[in-house]
Sequence to fold (260 residues):
Amino acid sequence: MKVFIVFAHPELKSFNGSFLKRTVEHLEKKGHEVRVSDLYREQFKSVVDEKDFLNFKEGDRLKVAFQSFLATTEGKLTEDVNKAQENMKWADLVIYQFPLWWYTMPAILKGWFERVFTCGFAYGVGVHDETHYGDRFGEGVMAGKKAILAITAGGYPSHYNARGINGPIDDLLFPITHNILFYPGFTVLPSHITYKTDKAGDKEFEESLNSFLNTLDNIDTVEPIPFRKQNFGDYEFPSMTLKEGLEQQNEAGFSIHIKK
Fold:
């Protein structure tokens, strides 16, 4: 298996840093090929601007999506973005590992998605007609590849359950798992989450790590999050709304986009 890990944490001596090191060692020992992008050590540029597009003409108005498409199709993206896209195309599994900061990913990783998921690569592609609205949400360049989030959180599990004050963890992660990863076609696996990380000792670290490694060792049997595919009959066109009656009784919100 070819595994690409996108790692976003500033401290290698942290829980996350140790988790990454042990994960890579385990995968390589099992005979898998592993590539790691350590965003902080690489000092990855996390803001989109005209420097991202090598064919941008100075003095022109920057229309990010349009210029992104031109640079993608004309082969005028920067080296770091090209490398990240190539790693994703190379991989069978992509692991995104990061701490949950302010209920989402660190800014450097959000910037990675904004720069790497370019128009013409991750979005804005495919046929648009009365029954098909682009290659997205279940189709796209990442179709056939798997992705998983490996996350640490400071709060207790109860803080993130259905009645928890932080909100349900699956809802908090929906913009990432569904709107970012499922969008270009990834098969998204249930996230691996370690809670109370700041208070975790060796025992808690080993338990979380071993659980994650067991998931990786049995990756072919792990059931993905059953997100509804956009172009397979569940949604009305062109409104892109779920057809009446497909949700459970009294169901609303993000959960209606997951098949029960």
In short: The chain has one domain: 2-128+135-225. Strands lie at 2-7, 33-38, 93-99, 146-152, 187-188, 192-194. The CA atoms of residues 42 and 194 lie 25 Å apart.
